[in-house]
What we know:
With 160 residues, the protein is α+β, with helices and mostly antiparallel strands. It has one domain (6-159): Aminopeptidase. Helices cover 33% and strands 26% of the residues. It has helices at 15-29, 40-48, 91-102, 116-124, 152-159; strands spanning 6-9, 56-62, 65-72, 77-82, 107-112, 128-132, 144-149. A hairpin with a 2-residue loop joins β2 and β3. The model is unreliable at 155-160 (pLDDT under 50).
Amino acid sequence: MSPDLRLRPGTVADLPVVAEVQLRARRAAVPAMPALVHPDRDVRAHVGATDLETHELWVAEVDAGICGYVLLTDTWLDDLYVDPASQGQGIGSALLDLARALRPTGFDLWVFASNTPARAFYRSHGLREVEKTDGSGNEEGAPDVRVHWPGERSRRRVVD
């Protein structure tokens, strides 16, 4: 991990940059992830309208600026994206570790079944795949997998 990596709470002012990180990361992940189904302007509007009263945004920064982010609700990890130029440096791991610290009772997330790199990433960090769908419930129509992190109490119980 980069020694100059900083994690900080995100603000409304960060949302335009967060949208660009998401767009770049999604494009770079094709074909492991399905292509975007919405035009860039709609993605930017959607991300820009994120309610930071109901969602908790944290951004990862290096000297060049925001290079990744995680977006959480009380029980879901909605987004975890790292800019393609910053991938492979431990930033995703740092963001996931932060999410686990912020949600010690656990959380769930969805990942596309075809996204084997992301599935391996979550598995390597102790998250479990608990449900698979045919994709009829998402806009992309692509099979997906619900991944679960049970929280600290469950982890301690396994260790004890």
